[in-house]
Amino acid sequence: MSAPEICPTLRKDGFCQDPACKYTHSMLTCEPCAFMCASAREMKEHTQSRIHLNKVGGQSLVFRCPHCSTRVHGRACWAYHIKTSKHIRESKKARAQPDQVVPEELANLPGHTLCVACNVHILEISWDRHIKGQKHLEKEQFASFKVALDEAEKDKHGIVITGDFDFGITDPATATTGKVLGGTIKTNNPTTRITLVEVKLASARGINPGRSSYEVNVSKGRKDITTVPLDFSIIFRQRYAGRCQDRAEFVFEDNQLRRRFVIVRQLEGIVGNKKDHKRLRPVAPYVPRPKSGRQAELSVVEGVRPPSMKAVPYVVPLPRAIIPNGLADTLSIGSEENKIAQIRNIFLPSEFNTSGYGRHFKHLLWIEEHQMECDLQIYDMINVKMTTYPPFYQLVVPGLAENRPSVLVGDRILVQKKGAQQGHWFEGGVHNVRKEEVNLRFNNSFGGWSRDQLYNVRFKLNRYPMRRQHQALDSAFAEERLLFPLPDHLSTRPYPKQNEVRLRPVNPLIGMNPPQLQAVISIVKQPPGSLPFVIFGPPGTGKTFTTVEAIKQVLKANPDARVLACAPSNSAADLIAMRLLDLSPSELFRFYAPSRKKDQVPHQLLDRAFIRLDGHFSVPPMAVMKRFRVVVTTCVSASFASGIGIPRGHYTHIFVDEAGQATEPEAFIAIKTMASSSTNIILSGDPKQLGPVIRSRIACQLGLEISYIERLMNRDAYSLPDGYGHSVIKLVKNFRSHEAILKFPNERFYDSELEQCGSPKVINSFIGYPLLPNKKFPIIFHGIVGKDDREPSSPSFFNVDEVLEVKAYVQALRSDRQFRTTDHDIGVIAPYNAQCRKIRSAFRNFADSIKVGSVEEFQGQERRVIIISTVRSSMEFVEYDLRHTLGFVASPRRFNVAVTRAQALLIIIGDPTVLSLDPLWRSFLNYIHKNKGWTGAPITWDPNAPVDEAGGYDTQIRQAAQLDMNDFTRQMEDMTLVGVNSLEEGNVDRPWRDVE
After folding, report:
1. Positions of E strands within 522-592
2. SMART domains, alphabetically (predicted)?
3. Are both 855 and 755 inside the same structural domain?
4. Which helix (H) or strand (E) is 91 found in, with range?
5. How much is the pTM?
6. How many CB atoms lie under 10 A from the CB of residue 22?
7. DSSP letter at 345?
8. How many structural domains compose the chain?
């Protein structure tokens, strides 16, 4: 029976609307390429094609649009092309969805030559320059190495090597004593005389020469290969957990030809728990989701928004603040360098000053918003189903629990029925968000639901935070003392000193800390309309305690004082409010956005908030609002004050805590909407810790990543000692960490000014701990060689080997009877969301209450024990650069925050070779090694050698890897049996035999 014939309509566009269609509709789909195949054979052919490999690998080629007959150069241009009116028109004629058209690859392009090594088309006039380029030479070199390696792995000259060379997952006890696998060497040609000369391990030379975890032994010392197989054994012995790869090179000599040749076998082994490895490994290989560019939304039927959207009685409307078309077009095409140049020349003011301040930051916000919209595309869903419980529709969103994508009540999600008119969408208002599903409500015209109906889903950015920032930037309030303070703004009078002012601290500890007390006195005694005051608080120095004390003293000193206190996150704002709970409910108000749920709020603060009868957070009547002496909110939500009509200048003081984590436009929402010429601004934070999270690299380079507090600290008015007491106080007493934990970041970031003042009972509580390599040094670096993995639907990295090592340390901590440790004493920091999820999974029903989170989630927090999993363990130095390999692990600010959270014990788990590529990490690892705090995989460089702060260690290792490849390739060429004894030199004129 012949195979069923696939519907031609289905093959074109993926769907058929003819209910009487006689063809079969069973197809296989390649998700990265959106390509449909009729059989497994056809799918296999497609996955081996260059167009599929380039789609997955992200290479740029020249394509042809099958509908428009247009050539398109590269995927960036293809994303632009599928949004053009011509493409949309031609696709409709072919009954295809414009954004799902598969580009045709052009193998032969006039005027171009295909570079096989780089897999890109090159203009013929540029060919000579291309083949001399560094990237091409590296690609060519790597390709040559792969060919040589593939050839070396083949059995040859009648010699066959059999055996098991993958040790799989070995438990630590067995790996310590040694696991043995066997193999044999035999010949298929009994007339040859072959001798095994030696067995070499690649780890003995190359990138990091050293002792191998493998040992190859040949039985009975016999080396001649005869009809009797020659047995050998391989021992895998490793005292620490993790992975180990090596290459065994069997060197043979043909005694008759007197030439040598090599057969290679790859050795692999993992030390760890087999059951846990299998449970935590990825369910399937990672496949990048394509960002092909969204088709334009031609019409959108507005949905029904949740009641919470009207919970706050705003009287001042928000501006739409839509990104200008010219800026959007500039950001849509071209190189990053060209985009930045055009933005600077066309859109940004020529000078960054008071008159151009608003215009400058408005464009940076639009650039960031454009990138956020682009990033949301990877979460768009195709051909999904919804369930309905009228009037709501439920949509399952994979990844929702980890904010991928982030969806809040009040957001919009666009839905389109499969096969509907192109560009026509229905908007669903998000009414409820559960673990992995959202409740949507559409316009009444949204009908035709059935159990089998398929929908396309598009996530839209919540623009309210951006619109609130634009509203603030549009304000005419622009005092130079706040925007660009100068030394002339400093008071000419001496700052008020502690012995001249009688002030009784509410918190007695403040009185025992001169820098904290001075900061409070300076803030209280500031005349109205002073330039912003900065509390520069390095880790563990109590900047939030100082901020809270200053708020209380301001209220005591001035009965008419009103304070608006802000922080970038709800957790930071809650911390301020919790420490102000000694104020009565009539004095303290905590504002929450109506979309926030009550179970997300500390129960102690519920009576300091206002909740409507329908359960939504809101604000009390205006008369009540004006009576509150302190209002606490997030930086973005601070716009509510002007929005409900509170007059400018009502608040005498505006405090912004953790100001380094907010963008400047965020910090200025409260300032530009509520401050008057007499309002005092107080910022607390540390510019050397985490800054704001910015998604757009262009916005970062143009300055959006620099926080307001950091920009102020770089101005002359805030230089020490001139600004001391007038504009800035630096806190120097660290009450958090053991001296060994504090020493390195103190020297590196704070000029060794921090003083260790922590409670000896706390900071010394792990001295003598059995797992410490140095019982007097409470830092452990546990070297481990793991493997980067990703789940099929998530680009975030995880490392199972490090997950299991984290779990082992937690088990040891919780079971130790002498050094008693509770779950609340332990914090686990990992730089990737996927790693955090895997660690939580490993802790399930075992240590559920241990906090596991990113560096950002731990800013401002502390634990007696901090465990850091650095995750990255990629050694593909030839193909990837340092930024790709280390990701944001190499950020100095993240490093500073991560290593300064621990009070008594700091444990870092990571791949030392990868971490040492970054000069900062190399210096820190040297510090640990010199203090004998090292365990696990050994150090792979000289810890006594000076560290080159300019970096370049990735280049050195890449070059070493290239030398290793060259050496191996030359070795294979030298040992080849082709042309033995130069026999071919006299063969030039010999006739070919007709062997048939």
Report:
1. 533-536, 563-567, 588-590
2. ZnF_C2H2 (SM00355)
3. yes
4. helix 85-93
5. 0.80
6. 7
7. I
8. 5
